[in-house]
Description:
By secondary structure, the chain is mainly α. About 75% of the residues lie in helices and about 0% in strands.
Amino acid sequence: MQVQKVNIKKDIIAVARKEFFDRGFKDASMRMIAKKAGVGLSNIYNYFRNKDEIFLEVLAPLMRALDKIMIEHNSQENLNIDIFNSEEYYFRHTNIYVDLIVTFNDELKLLLFQSYGSSLENFRDEYTDRHTKIGMEYLQKMKEKYPWIHVDISEFFIHTMSSWWISIIGEIVSHNLNTEEIKKFISEYMEFGTAGWKKIMKA
């Protein structure tokens, strides 16, 4: 019985995923999701409290991947001045973002452009605020480790760079670039960004 319940839940998520991709959160209907999943409309609420809960479930793998990248931003491995001259760091981080975008292309479109009306409709602002906080913490941690570097950088600058980055991801997924085009762009952006941070931090 429990196995059947798990399978029904997976079916609902699979159907909802396509509905959200096709219609966005606002225009996707619980009635249509239930119908296509072969579940009665009243019965679907035995598995999910509301449409938003299904939406969060559909985007959960993407949100976990984004959280992982965010958490690792200030890891000891990255708190190293050698990253500004490290080819290994450069290629590893290029691949991290290429993999993210290729793996979750549709989910990123949904999150960034079709989440209006959901609990994630303010994701861009929330992501920017969180990324700004982590960026400011990163500067202070680097200063503690390397007292001579320059970290007197305005919070608004970090905020703008954070906002710019999530907008860049939106641009990539909205233009339907293929994997090689994504890799080329991310590689160019990483090279540009690394040189800029090295210069502004006098590292």
